[in-house]
Specification:
Structural class: alpha/beta
Organism: Steinernema carpocapsae (Entomopathogenic nematode)
Pfam family, one: AhpC-TSA_2
Number of strands: 7
Keywords: Cytoplasm, Redox-active center
CATH topology of the largest domain: Glutaredoxin
CATH class of the largest domain: Alpha Beta
Protein name: Peroxiredoxin-like 2A
GO molecular function, one term: antioxidant activity
Number of helices: 11
Order of helices and strands: HHHHEEHEHHEHEHHEEH
Oligomer: single chain
Helix content: 40-55%
Shape: globular
C-alpha cells in the first residue's frame, strides 16, 4: 500500500520530489540526540536561574525575581520545564506528573514548573498541581538549548502517536505560542540530579513510573 502511494505521488510530483520527501521523513525521525543534541543542564547552572512566580499571566513581568537556588535550598524539587503552556501534549504530561503529588508531599519534595513564555499559563495551571515560574532567560532549557524545527516535528511519527494519547485522555490545547524549544523534567536534590528526562520530540513525556522510582529512592 505504501509502495503504491509513493508510486502515485511520484507520478504527480516526480520521483525526485518523492526521494527528497522520503529523505526528509527519514532525517526527521532520527533520534534527536543525533540531530539537535541531548545534554542535560547541571544543577549549578539551573541554580542561577532568575524565576518569577506566575499567579496570573498579566502580572508575570511585574512580580519579584527569585533565584532557583533559593527554591532548591527549601527542599528537593521535581521540576517540569514546559515546552509550550498551550500544548495539549505538555498539559497531558503536567497532569500525569501531578498524579505523583501525594507521594511527593510525603517525601517533602516540592513540585513546580517553569515556562519560557507565560502566554497560556492560566489555562495550563488546572492541569498542574504545583507553582509555575517564568524563566525569561530560558536557563532550564539550556545551556545547550534544543530547538526542534517545525517541519521535523510535523514529520515525526511519534508526534501523532502522542497526540492520539492526549486526545484519548480528553486533553485539549491550542496552537498559540513558541513550541520549538524542547523541555524536560528534573529531580533535584541539593547539588545532585538523581533523575533527568530531556524531551526528545513533541510530547515525549517523562515516564511517570521512572520518576516515581527515583522519588522512592529518596529518604
Amino acid at each position: 500500500m505504501i509502495d503504491f502511494l509513493f508510486s502515485m505521488i511520484g507520478k504527480f510530483l516526480g520521483y525526485g520530489a518523492v526521494s527528497a520527501l522520503s529523505g526528509a521523513i527519514l532525517y526527521a525521525n532520527l533520534p534527536t540526540r543525533l540531530t539537535i543534541g541531548a545534554v542535560a543542564p547541571t544543577v549549578s547552572y539551573l541554580a542561577g536561574s532568575k524565576l518569577k512566580l506566575i499567579q496570573q499571566e498579566k502580572d508575570a513581568l511585574t512580580v519579584p525575581v527569585i533565584e532557583a537556588s533559593e527554591l532548591f535550598k527549601k527542599s528537593p524539587a521535581l521540576v517540569m520545564a514546559v515546552r509550550r503552556p498551550g500544548c495539549m501534549l505538555c498539559r497531558r504530561e503536567a497532569a500525569d506528573l501531578s498524579t505523583l503529588k501525594e507521594e511527593l508531599d510525603k517525601k517533602g519534595i516540592q513540585l513546580f514548573a517553569v515556562v519560557h513564555e507565560f502566554k497560556g499559563v492560566n489555562e495550563f495551571k488546572p492541569f498542574f498541581k504545583g507553582d509555575v515560574y517564568f524563566d525569561e532567560e530560558k536557563r532550564f532549557y539550556g545551556p545547550n538549548q534544543r530547538w526542534l524545527p517545525v517541519w521535523m516535528g510535523f514529520l515525526r511519527f511519534d508526534t501523532y502517536k502522542n497526540i492520539y494519547r492526549a486526545k484519548k485522555q480528553g486533553v485539549e490545547g491550542n496552537m498559540e505560542g513558541e513550541g520549538r524549544l524542547l523541555g524536560g523534567v528534573y529531580f533535584i536534590n541539593g547539588d545532585e540530579m538523581p533523575y533527568a528526562h530531556l524531551e526528545k520530540s513533541w510530547g515525549d513525556a517523562a515516564d511517570v513510573a521512572e520518576v516515581l522510582a527515583a522519588i522512592k529512592k529518596f529518604n
